[in-house]
Amino acid sequence: MHPIVRKLGLFTKLDPQIIRAVDSVLSGALEFMAGTDIARQGEQPTAVYFLLDGFACRHRLLDNGRRQILSFLLPGDACKLGVSLLEHRDHTLLAMSNCRVARASDEDLQHLSDRYPSLREALQWAALVEESIAREWIASVGQRSGTQRMAHLFCEHYHRMKALDLADGNDCFFPISQNDLADALGLSSVHVNRTLQDLRSLRLLVFADKRLRILDLPKLEQIAAFDAAYLHLKARPREDA
Amino acid sequence: MHPIVRKLGLFTKLDPQIIRAVDSVLSGALEFMAGTDIARQGEQPTAVYFLLDGFACRHRLLDNGRRQILSFLLPGDACKLGVSLLEHRDHTLLAMSNCRVARASDEDLQHLSDRYPSLREALQWAALVEESIAREWIASVGQRSGTQRMAHLFCEHYHRMKALDLADGNDCFFPISQNDLADALGLSSVHVNRTLQDLRSLRLLVFADKRLRILDLPKLEQIAAFDAAYLHLKARPREDA
DNA sequence: CGCCCACTTGATTAATATCAAATACTGTGG
DNA sequence: CCACAGTATTTGATATTAATCAAGTGGGCG
């Protein structure tokens, strides 16, 4: 299934005609190798990127040389109408696995949104959800302990993957090193390693080979003080309509 | 000057006709006392709020009983087109000083944005900047020490106030208790108190009587590893046009 | 084989939380 | 004006969390 349809389908079932219109303004699929930048902090933005396949993140380099991962991008993500209104990108988009990406000019997408209000709504919805997730990350880094934070991130990732039907039972793709995890959680990599061992020894999850397997979701959610409300996942309106 | 014009004027000079149209869909000014909620986490959102005067914040209560302040709202802020697409608010809007607020229905504002593309662009711009600030908060809480974080927040607040012409020299309104500061920075209030004393004894700033006075901005920015790029403040295109 | 990278372990230190109490400050009613 | 309650700030002592430093181990791969 088309990843964008799948993602925006979490909000609403888009008319096939709209999908075709979107496709018509998208570039053919671009390939990015794991570890390469899709778009760079500081550049002037003109294009909107859609992740079609793979796993990517946004991150920002600080003046003090440190790095913070700001969010993760799953297939269908990354649409952000209006970026070209800014003079420079304030963060880098990085492919964390091999990625297939499509690009559209912001302008084209705006025009399309003018013509199809339901497309605009779906994109607005996606942007609002992404913002809500960003806010939860602030709350998480600010108020949760290292263990809770890590548990929370795993819950979040699993729920997002599940919602997109990209989880295989209690197991899903999560191609990220312990170092990246540290940069996402605001912890040192040594501490990440130890915390991971704790969670593993509690038999809550297995995180290895670029995959996350959740063994005890309720317990994990409890530890994390996880409340899925911020993900704004409605009872899925998709499928069999 | 109209606070919304002042804020959106950081992006573009809006046609007076558009301003009148916006005013026409805004409720008259609502008053909120310091400490009262403007809109609550969990409620179903229908309205878009504009802060006309005063100082407010967004915050979120976690399941573990803790609280994180997610962002600060300055006059002209708070427009977020599309909120009504979500089923519930994921955070609370709280007046931190007495506030004057105007409300518009999301629907009215969308229609207006359809009619006036430059209004839509200005609102999109404001939303993008707010997101960028949220990302910087993630980076700050994740990668900066307590002292740096606090210095950073003060730099940010000062720059934002300055950009809106709401700073009086090196001095500006900042009506927030040390407890709130702690909830914004992800520190304990005791630690905030001590960090504050450090910054004060270094003669970098004075924070008292609900005001922030910056004594040595370059030094403060250096400590904070502050880089204003994320605020997306262009060389102001306002005034004397 | 040997190198590189990711992960792991141990020891130590630094940052920050927590607990407990004292000291301002603010507004209120008498 | 004073006594008072309530809140905000400050201080000290101690405990915990997580960072840092320094060395391993282990697997993939040319």
Give me the oligomer status: homodimer
Shape type of chain A:
globular
Main pleated sheet of chain A: 4 strands, antiparallel
Structural class category of chain A: alpha+beta
Describe this structure in words.
2 copies of one chain form a homodimer. Chain A has about 240 residues and is α+β, with helices and mostly antiparallel strands. Chain A has a 4-stranded antiparallel β-sheet. Chain A is globular. Mean pLDDT of chain A is about 95; it is low at about 235-240. Chain A has helices at about 5-10, 15-25, 105-115, 115-145, 145-165, 180-185, 190-200, 215-225; strands spanning about 30, 35-40, 45-55, 55-60, 65-75, 90-95, 100-105, 165-170, 170-175, 205-210, 210-215. In chain A, strand 10 (about 205-210) and strand 11 (about 210-215) form a beta hairpin. Chain A contains 8 helices and 11 strands. The two termini of chain A are about 15 Å apart. Chains A and B meet through strand 5 and helix 4 of A and strand 5 and helix 4 of B. Chain A binds a DNA duplex (30 and 30 nucleotides) through helix 7.
